[in-house]
Every structure is written in C-alpha cells, then in structure tokens.
Amino acid sequence: MSDSEYITLVSSDGFEFVVLREAALVSPTIKGMLRSQFSEAQTGRCTFPEISAIVLEQVVEYFHYWYRNRDKEDVPDMDIPVELCLELLMAANYFNLDAKPAVRDAV
Amino acid sequence: MASRPNKIRPVRRPILNKETSEFEPCWDILKSALTDIHNKNASRLSFENLYRASYKIVLRKKGQLLYDRVKEFEEEWFRNHVLPPIAGLVSSNLVSVALLQRPGLSAHERRETGERFLRGIRDTWEDHNMSMNMVADILMYLERSYVSEARQPSIFAATIGLFRDHILRNNLDGVSEQLDQPLVMFDLINAVILDLINMERDGDIIDRNLLRQITSMLEALYETDEEPENAKLYLTVFEPRFLAASQSFYRDECDKLLREGSASAWLRHTQRRLQEEHNRCETSLSILTTDKIAQVVEQELIVAKLNDFLAMEGTGMKSMVDNDRHEDLSILYQLVSRVDKTKHALKHILQTRVMELGLEIEQTLKSTDFSAPVAGAEVEDVGEAGEKTKAQPLSAAAQQTAAAIKWVDDVLQLKDKFDNLSRVCFNQDLVLQSAVTKSFSDFINMFHRCSEFVSLFIDDSLKRGLKGKSDEDVEAMLQKAIVLLRYLADRDMFERYYQKHLARRLLHNKSEIHTEKELVRRMKAELGNHFTTKFEGMFKDMELSKDLSENYRDHVRSLGDADIKNIDLGLHVLTTNNWPPEVMGRSANQEDGGRAECTFPPAIKRLQESFFKYYLKDRSGRVLTWVASAGTADIKCVFPKVPGKESGPLSKERRYELNVSTYGMIVLELFNGVAEGESLSFEEIQAKTNIPAHDLIRTLGSLSIPPKSRVLAKEPLSKNVKPTDRFSFNAQFASKTIKIKAPVISSASKVEDNEERKQTERKNDQTRAHVVDAAIVRIMKQRKELTHTQLTTEVIGQLAGRFKPEISMIKKRIEDLLVREYLERIEGGTAAYRYLA
C-alpha cells in the first residue's frame, strides 16, 4: 500500500490531479477507497471514468478548501461556477460529501 | 450564492448512461468482486469501479434488491467456505478439557489445545471481519443512502452478525448430550478463555495477544444486528462469566490464605493480585472490565475476611503496629482504603491498640521500682551532690517525680510511634488521625494524675536541660508540651498545677523567662485567653518587681543610710490572685495559725520598713505581706581560724558566701547572737523565729545535714531533724568553694502524695463549683427559661474548653442556685427553670 503524502486523482478525460492525501480523505468514498486492499490503495491512484476534469477540478479545490479551513471559524464561502452547480451536486453525492460520517468510519 | 441570479442549464452529459446502469450487469461485477474479496484477491479490483456499480444500483432504486442479494451471497459463502473448517477445530480433547473438566492432560497440553482452538477462531474471525469491512466499503453508498432510510441493520452489521449466529451460537450437539444441557460454541470459547486465565493466575505463561484478539472480537459483536452499545457480546456474555469465575477463584484463594495464617503474606498476595488483574484487563481483556474485576478481588480477598486477617496471631495488625512493620501497614492501608472510605476496621484496631498500650504505660509505672535513680531524672534533693549520691536510693518524692517524667516520656514515645505510622503508612489519613487522637485523649484522661504529670514534665524540662540546648530542641520540647496539653480534658486541674510549678520556677529563677513566655503564648493560642491570664499576671509581677527592686536600690543609695547599705534587697511583689496559695503562704497546713508571721531579725525588719515606706510613696493603701517561705538570701559569713590547727583550711580564717532560704537566713542570723560553744534547741529556735515547724525542720535540715553546707552542728548527729535536737555554730566548717548553696527543698517540684492530692482535688472542685455557678447564671440570664436537659447541655458546651463537669455536679449547682433564688422551677411536666433577676 502506498503511503505517500499525496495521491493522484484521474478524470474521465485523462487529467491528473495530485492532491494532499489528508485533504482528499474528507470524502468517505475516497477514504474507503484507500483503506482497503483494492488497487487504488496499492497505487495511490484513483481513476474516475465518469467525472470530467472540469468537475473534478472543483472537487479537488473543495478538498483543499476544506483542509485549509478545517480548524477555523468564520470560514468564507467557496466560489462555485453557477453553470456547474448540478454536476457538482451529483459529484458531492458520489463522493459522499453530504453524509454524516458513519460510526464505522469514526473508529 | 443565493443572491446570484442563477440559471440552471440542462446537464450536458448525463452521468448515468443506459447500457452500464442496468441492475444485472452491475450485480455481476459486484458478485465476482465479492468472491475475489473472500479469496483475498482484492488488490486487482478497482474500488471505484465497484463503488460506482453499487452507486448506480442504488440510484436506480434497486437498493433493497442489492441488499438482499449481498446478504444471500454472504450466507451461502459462509455456509460453504467458513463453517466446515470451524467444525474441525472442536476436537473431543478440547471439549473434555474445557467443558467437562476431565483430568488427564497436563497443564501444558491443556494450554496448547485451548490456544490452538482460539487461534482457529481468531483466524476465521479476522478473515471474516476484514472481508465484511471491505464489502461494506464498496457498498458505502448503499449503507448511506438506502439502509439508513429503510431502517434496516446496516449491511455490515447483517453480515458480520453471521459469525455470531452461525459460529458462536452454533449448537455443540455431541457435547450437549453428554452434559445434558444445551451448549453452543460460545460456551466453549468462554470456557477455554477462563481456563487460560486461571492457568495464568497459577503462574503459566499464556498467549495474551491471542486473548486480546478474541476479546476484541467479542467487543465487536453485538447481541443483535441493531448493535446497541450496551449489548456487546463481551459485556452481555463473557464478562459476567469471567467475573463469576474470578469470584469463585478468589474465594478459594482467600480460604487458602486464611489457612496459611500469615497476614503479611496475605497483604502482599492481594496487592499482587490486584495489580495482575489490572494488567490482565489492559493486555488480555478489555479496560471495560478493569473496575469490575478489581471490585471482585477487593470483595473476595479484602472485605470478606478482613477481620480474620487483621486479628491473626503474630502477623495481624496488632503485631504490625507493635513491631513497626511499616511496609505491611502501608499496604494494608492502601487495600482497606480501596474498599472502605471510613476504614472502620483499621480505626477500631488502632484505637484499641492505643488504649492497650496507654494503659500498659500506667501498669508499668505501677510495677516499676523508681528507687534506683533514673538517668536524667535528677531532682533537686540530689542537687549539687548529684555525682556522689547517685547510687543512693531516691527519696519517695523524687521517685514520684521520676515516675511522672517516665509516664510523660512513654506517652510521648507512643505518640511519636503513632504519628510516625500515620505519616509513613497511613498517608496522614484524617479519619485515622482523629481516631488515634481520641484514644490518646481517652487513656490519658483515664489516668487520674495526668494533669499533674504533664505539668511536672514541663517543669522538669524547663528547669533542666534547656540551658545550652539548641533552638530546635527547645522548639521540640515546647511542641511536646502543647501536644500533651491538647489531650487533657481537665484543663483547670492542669492550670492549678502549672501555676504552682511556674511560681516556683519564677521565684527561684530556675528557667529562662523567654522560654516560659513562649510556652504560655502557645497555650494562649491553643486554649484561649482566660486560661493564661494568671500566668501572664505572674510574668508581669516578675517584671514590675525587678524594676521596683532596682529603683529601691537607687533610692537607698541616694539616702546613704549606712545601716541598710550592707544588705542588698531583691524582692518580688506578687499579686495575690495570680499566684498559687501555697506560694503566698496561705497553704492549707498553716490554716490553723492563721497567717503565721515569722520574726525577722532587727536588721531585716528595718530594711522591710524602709522598703514599705518607699513602696507606699507611690501606691498608698496597699498592703504588703512578707512571705519568707519563698525567698532566698545570700549571706557572707566568716569562719574564724580554729585554734590549734596549724595547717589545712581550718588554720586560716575562711570567708564563704552562703545561699540559703529566707528562713535559713533568719536562723543563721539567730546564731550571730549565740556565744561560741553554746547551742540552741529546736524549740528555742522556733520560739525565737516563729517559723512554722515543718519549714523549720527543712531549713535546719539543709543547714546541718548535707556535708557541703553543714554550717550548723547538730546534736545528736543523725539524718533527720527532730524537735528535741540541739544546734550550734559549726566552727570546723570548711568548703572548697567560696559560694555554697544550701539545698532548698521547697523549690523542688514533686508529685503530691495522696493527702495533698485530695486537697488539691477538693480545692479544684470548689473552684469548679463557682465556675459552674457562673456558667449557669450566664446562660439563664440570656435565655430566661430553659429545660433541665437544655441547660445541662449548654453548661457542658460552655465549659468544654476548661474541664468536663460531672452531671451530678451541675445538678447540685442548679439546686443550690434554686435555694439561693437565682432560679426558680417552672411548674409543669418536664423539669425547667426560670431566671430570677
């Protein structure tokens, strides 16, 4: 299992995003991806064949936005391009960013 | 965001496309993945791919179907691949060892068998647990979106629960028949674990890690798939059995320890067991159990037979205390504090022991022969001739004094011992400290001479030792005095004795005044103002007298009166109330003759008159009484050359300075007028001086018996002075030293004999009667009306600081006050009184 500080997220159109592992772990989906024995955990490389680079870029930006502000109060809103709203909503759903952490994750 | 003019455009590229989002293709992907996961081939699968498959199924509202399919798949897998090897683990050997407790196998074999079985269970569990975690991970979207809405147990709980339902709760049919009760795998696991734990308790080394893994498994499994926090199998099944088994183990162990009969071994064993169980919970079981198992051990090993162990002959608490076995007592204290915050058992034994040892001191005192001089108990009778007479038996009074000092020393030693115990072993526990203090107070006050003895001890310490001692020693002595004082209940008795002893010390200048003052200052802090007013008055008198003497001396010098110049007067003017009656010449023995005024020699009389005149110049109307019994005089005397002696000290004229009591001075003055060779009889001397008979006996004794101060020759030569003896000037007297001190017996503080003691008590009771009267009147004046019981309680409360009045005395005083019409009875059912103004 790769323990690098960074992981790589790959979009459907082949763009690669190198993300701080800790930041990406805000998503339970990615967390699950990286903690088990699956190929993503071995390589540190997660491919998303149904997410375009435009959307994934916003997702990555959110990861870091969250990471930067994780211990702060009075956090400013993150700017989101209006035209991407729907797709981002679906992506957020896919990455489980709307869910409360499950009990099993907390352990 | 909400403020922006939003315009939602149609989705450019739908995330779901038809071909890949049908249920069956997705399920096929997942199904093959599940098989791979179980076969540990997950690393070639893409999590994203599987996650997306389940994600799509759920989005297409096929969640329930997926849930059922997965559950079905897992159940089947479990049945076909997991259960068969488990069945192989249950060997007949294992069953007979763990459940039937059949002998025949060595501990080693038993351990091996048990551990092999547990290892098998653990491996199966870990595989299952890991697979289920992975399955739950890829079905994450199902768990989150569907399961929580549908109010079903999570897929993880449902699949992990298979282990509980199909392994732990699997019936062991063969065994159940043999034992005639239904048994499941779980029972077998429990039995093996408990067996292993017992082996470890007996000293075997077992695989703690393995135990920990098995107990973690039990902690991860729940009674039902709903997984309520308090229904972990560990808590519901294993822990109660573990506690019950431990209880019976420790009960047996306690019996064994009791039979072995060593409390010391018991303490150490118990301490070790507690530590062991604590460690076991941390390394092998769960910290959830730490407190509970500690309670079991405490209950079985400490509480159950505590009193039996404490009472053990030779090793029990009594012997620990007696032999200062501090380590044992420390452990004991720690153990008992765990189970009983009031430490009742310890308290009880400590108190009894203090009482016993305290009464022993009194017993020893009675049986000890003080006729041999006790080292360090030198008293005034022996005085200057100490070295020579040390071998001689002490006088009765001196023996008593020695006894008093021994008693106090012993009590202090005992106190030190228990203080030490409290510090070293009992963590300065307040409950125990106050219990011990109470016992000390009890036994000290049971000894009826305590007040006198304590005062004597202080007297002795202040008179002897303090000169040349360091500040710390003085401090320690003061501290001791206060400690003892605190224990005394009858403080008025102490006050009486202390006043007497202090008077002697002050008048004879036997102690250092600043130490005396310091001690009284501390008493004041400890017992309050009224206790020390008399003592402070005495100090004040002493100071005023010193000034007065000096001023008078100046006055005389200025007068230039030749007659008086020869005699240097130093005197103490004492306020009657502050000083004890004995010192003031009003002692009971002299009551018959009123205040016997002795006849002073003319030279002294002139001096007295001169001083009196001087004194009244500033203070008219006062009366001065000369108390000869308390004073001393320095006399310069000349012994003429003895005719016929040509060599030696007698051949020359000898000048000595003689320090004698005032009475001694009066007597010697008398011999100035007696021609050489003539003698005076006892009666003649008494008639001329008017000194009370028993004082005269003592005075003459000091001048005619001890070789060092024999300035008078006595006829006949004997050790005692009798009223028939005759005395003459001893012209042969010679001494090596210029200054000679004639021992002054009256300055020695000694224990009262029974007669004196009764006197003192009677006087004290009289004083008490007045104090009680005053207290009653004070209370009634304030309250106007009170019932008898209320009044009694209040009186006792008011007087608690001074002494403990007897109920009968209070009753008597109330009756007396009724007669004297300070109070009147209120008619009615209960006894009550009204104050009459």
UniProtKB/TrEMBL annotation, chain A:
InterPro entries: ELC1 (IPR039948), SKP1-like (IPR001232), SKP1/BTB/POZ_sf (IPR011333), Skp1_comp_POZ (IPR016073)
Cellular component aspect of the GO annotation: nucleus
Major subcellular location class: nucleus
Pfam families: Skp1_POZ
GO biological process terms, semicolon-separated: ubiquitin-dependent protein catabolic process
Cross-referenced SMART domains: Skp1
Top-level lineage group: Eukaryota
Keyword Nucleus: yes
Family the UniProt entry places it in: Belongs to the SKP1 family.
Entry protein name: Elongin-C
Organism: Parathielavia hyrcaniae
Automatic annotation (TrEMBL), chain B:
A single BP term in Gene Ontology: ubiquitin-dependent protein catabolic process
Entry's Gene Ontology cellular component terms: cullin-RING ubiquitin ligase complex
Listed Pfam families: Cullin, Cullin_AB, Cullin_Nedd8
Cross-referenced InterPro entries: Cullin, Cullin-like_AB, Cullin_CS, Cullin_homology, Cullin_homology_sf, Cullin_N, Cullin_neddylation_domain, Cullin_repeat-like_dom_sf
Alphabetized GO MF terms: ubiquitin protein ligase binding
Keywords: Isopeptide bond, Ubl conjugation
Domain spans labelled Cullin family profile: 449-704
Family: Belongs to the cullin family.
The protein, known as: Cullin-domain-containing protein
Organism phylogeny: Eukaryota, Fungi, Dikarya, Ascomycota, Pezizomycotina
